[in-house]
Amino acid sequence: METNRKRIIVISIVSLFLGLTSFSIAWAEEYDAMKGVNHADVIFDMRDGIPEIAVEHRKLVHDTFKQLTAMKKNPVFVVVFMGSAVKLISSDHSGFNAEEKKHLKELAGTISKMSKDGIDFEVCLAAVEYFGVDPASIQSEMKHVPNGWISEIGYQARGYKLVPVY
User: What domains can you pick out in the chain, each with its CATH number?
Assistant: First the structure.
């Protein structure tokens, strides 16, 4: 019961943000925080392991990338999958119910679109091993890295801003 309530709250919040991203780019230009910003190098730490929520988070990341591109802020996005989220990017959907499998299919499609738009993806092989996911089953857009934390440390040392999503 509590899990469903949390899920509904999170989905409602994400839906609100997705609705806001549909406003015109002129609205997005009004961010005082973006004045003088010429590029946006960002790493997203993706650990949410709930298929339905993961789909909405990826859509929000994609919409943000498109908005920043339209604003000519030259975004460079890297999405690193760690924790239980690694199960969501595997072609092995055993252990998921029919509804979750539907969301996993949508997630795979969203990731493919994001990759085509220039967003990079990495998967933490330490998490893959921990959760018993076959590395060969991981979606092809993913660059395999031994340790996602080390990857994040490297990106941050190079000036990327961290956005945790879990």
Answer: 39-165 (3.40.1260.10)
